[in-house]
Design brief:
- The chain has a domain at 18-75: 434 Repressor (Amino-terminal Domain).
- The protein is 44% helix and 6% strand.
- It has 4 helices and 2 strands; from the N terminus they run ββαααα.
- It has helices at 22-35, 40-47, 51-59, 66-75, and strands spanning 5-7, 13-15.
- A hairpin with a 5-residue loop joins strand 1 and strand 2.
- The longest helix has 14 residues, at 22-35.
């Protein structure tokens, strides 16, 4: 995996990540939100969601909607990028 970096704020960076499972997505979203020092309530208010929706995305992503995911990505200044999966990796899930 290429290790390029995404700018999060003027002096902190987070690397691009491959996210093969909903649970890993939830952990990364939670990490980005905390890195930005946003509470679930603040992130929710930024994009018109309820804090419980942010909590669901971070704790039980399997039951969350795609629309809510995109709103949270927007609140965190992130975008979704799709690419072909590497053939050398098989983590057994999905």
């Amino acid at each position: 995996m290429t290790k390029s970096k995404c700018k999060m704020s003027s002096d902190s960076y987070m690397e691009k990540q491959s996210i093969p499972t909903p649970k890993q997505l939830a952990m990364v979203l939670n990490g980005y939100r905390k890195k930005l020092k946003l509470t679930q309530k603040q992130a929710a208010e930024n994009v018109g969601l309820f804090p419980k929706t942010i909590s669901a995305l971070e704790n039980s992503p399997d039951s969350s909607s795609i629309a809510s995911l995109f709103k949270l990505l927007s609140a965190l200044g992130l975008e979704l990028v799709l690419k072909p999966r590497s053939t050398e990796r098989n983590d057994g899930e999905w």
